[in-house]
Amino acid sequence: MINRVILVGRLAQDPELRYTPNGVAVTTFTLAVNRRFTNQQGEREADFINIVTWRQLAETCANYLKKGRLVGVDGRLQIRSYENSEGRRIKVAEVVADTVQFLEPAGARSGTAAEGDPFGKGRNEMDDPFADDGKPIDISDDDLPF
């Protein structure tokens, strides 16, 4: 049997880090994933999917992710249920992440980066060590991995 979910989207809010009574870190966040089609008004809709991470991955997500960050999530779908305070049975669908990939630089959504400019508006070409200055790059054969 296969239970695999792969998503790419933006965080709808900052992650929430908690610890279990045994001291295990757990972080939850909601991922906004755009649908491939538009609605009748021509607007693109999104699905808001709950994500759960555990242990070291949970602490990493809590420390480095913020609302609006673009991430890739690979994990499994989990359906759980609980009884609320009114005695009603509630079902919850969430993705338990095995990996979370940060897909853009940390400051890219802060308003400093221009569309199509992942390094931020106004950066000097001298800041980019890979900028094409017209000179050949001197690399010895010992430095190549192949």
TrEMBL record:
PROSITE patterns: SSB (PS50935)
One GO cellular component term: nucleoid
Upper classification of the organism: Bacteria, Bacillati, Bacillota, Bacilli, Bacillales
NCBIfam families: ssb
Entry keywords, A to Z: DNA damage, DNA recombination, DNA repair, DNA replication, DNA-binding
Species in which this protein is naturally found: Planifilum fulgidum
Pfam families membership: SSB
Record text on subunit structure and interactions: Homotetramer.
Biased composition (Basic and acidic residues): 118-138
InterPro entries referenced in this protein's UniProt entry, alphabetically: NA-bd_OB-fold (IPR012340), Primosome_PriB/ssb (IPR000424), ssDNA-bd (IPR011344)
Lineage top rank: taxon: Bacteria
GO molecular function: single-stranded DNA binding
Function, as annotated: Plays an important role in DNA replication, recombination and repair. Binds to ssDNA and to an array of partner proteins to recruit them to their sites of action during DNA metabolism.
GO biological process, one term: DNA replication
Stretch list, region Disordered: 107-146
Renumbered ranges of motif Important for interaction with partner proteins: 141-146
Signal peptide range in chain numbering: none
Name of the protein: Single-stranded DNA-binding protein
